[in-house]
Amino acid sequence: MIYIYLDGHTKMNDVQTAVQIFMPNEKYKPAEGITDESITVRSKLKDDCAVAYIYENGKEICSESYPYTADESGKSARYAIKAAVYYMLKKKTGITVPWGMMTGIRPAKRINTYIDEGMTADEGAKKLIELYEMKPEKAELAKRVALAEREILSKADSDGVSLYIGIPFCPTRCLYCSFTSYPLGVYKNKVDGYIDALIKELSYIGESIKGKRLDSIYIGGGTPTSLTAEQLDRLMTNVGEIFDLSALMEYTVEAGRPDTITADKLKVIKNNGAGRISINPQTMNDKTLKLIGREHTVDDIKRVYAEAREAGHKNINMDLILGLPGEGTAEVENTMAEIEKLAPENMTVHTLAIKRASRLREQLEDYDLAKAVLMEKLLDISASTAERMNLSPYYMYRQKNMLGSFENVGYAKKGCESVYNIVIMEETQSIYAAGAGASTKLYDKETGRIERVFNVKNVDEYIARIDEMIERKRNMNI
Ligand code: SF4
Fold first, then answer.
1. What is the atom index within ligand 1 of the atom nearest the CA of 180?
2. Whole-prediction pTM
3. SS3 call for 219
4. CA separation for the pair 154, 266 (Å, rounded)
5. pLDDT tens digits for 230-279?
6. DSSP alpha helices (H): ranges in 272-358?
7. pLDDT digits (tens, 9 = 90+) for 158-179
8. Which of 178, 179, 294 to mutate to test the pocket of ligand 1 (most atoms within 8 A of CB)?
9. Is ligand 1 within 6 A of the CB of residue 222?
10. E-assigned strands of 104-205?
11. Pairing mode, strands 169-170 and 182-183
12. Is the CB of residue 186 less than 8 Å from the CB of residue 460?
């Protein structure tokens, strides 16, 4: 538990986000003063500077101040509050974090804002370095992603819409899963009923977006290839009949786990017009695959990949995870070497932080720091592999739950980027979503705001209450 004591101001969020940079996964509690137990972070605002202190069991162990000149908006005082806490914890821990003081999860969005305000991309990157003490290579990454996004968003603009279709079934549950996913063993008999409900919802959406330009379709999950080839064909045939696919820039089926992919399903996907698939190994090490609960081997991944090429798939994405249990540089180097041999057009690299309860002292010492140092190395390995494969970063967001808040990055060959990934990240067009747990995001051009309409998560509820899900959309004028 970290107690946060605000002294002379009320900017709790600024203090907490700055503390979280160095101490993620902690519980935070406001305090009226310095507590005798555990850790207290105190943030004091004076007329000309902000001061941050840290106390352990009531005893001060470090402090730092940051000057500001008062302005009407209060912006400089807020910046100073955050900066004082950041520099104080940096001094106390000796840790340099790659993204510096930046706490937002979408750094590229910030550069895009700067560009919209009239800066060049290089000036935007320079500003990130100055303002947030960001490492130059991270600012460069944010810049490259921002520029790639701009190019795609100039075509997939707010006049177009995208469609998401959720298939919440998986053969088994992976160790690290945080998605809506139901084991197929138990839900097998419900899949047809689920597809019926899905088609009903899609038919409604199809009617309501008639006349709008459909830019991208993403069938995700779960694992869409948990469906049989016939079920997948029924779903995709209906999608083709309900929607006008003539303007589509992207149609992705996240095939996902190799243990569910067959040559038949790959043909179904291809024949129904999907041009991009994901085959997601996560790692190319058999030992780890077993450990994370995947029922397939590296050889299965290679076989499925070859079958996808045979079926004519020309845009394949492979999802990988860095930081899986037991994996260090040797394992990741092996994974990258194998991926390089396969040469997919897309590679998406996620960073994983296995959460564990930790106390401050541990956090300030070895465990998380070692993990953060390792993660940086692993990210470097993946970035240089992408470079060798001629894949450029086009999409990125940061993970908040680990020291360093490392990034997840999508790399792609030019012209093979996922439009859907970008529009969902940048929130600049409406995304209509069907299926259990799916949420429709309506973009308001005038205000730039997003309004959400949620479906129930539970599969049984979704099937039973499909008319209500449609009614929810109707009530929002969808
Ligand atoms: S394949 Fe994805 S959605 Fe399914 S259990 Fe594994 S992590 Fe979860």
1. 3
2. 0.91
3. strand
4. 31
5. 999 999 999 999 999 999 999 999 988 899 999 999 999 999 999 999 99
6. 286-291, 298-310, 329-342
7. 999 999 999 999 988 887 777 7
8. 179
9. yes
10. 160-167, 169-170, 182-183
11. parallel
12. no
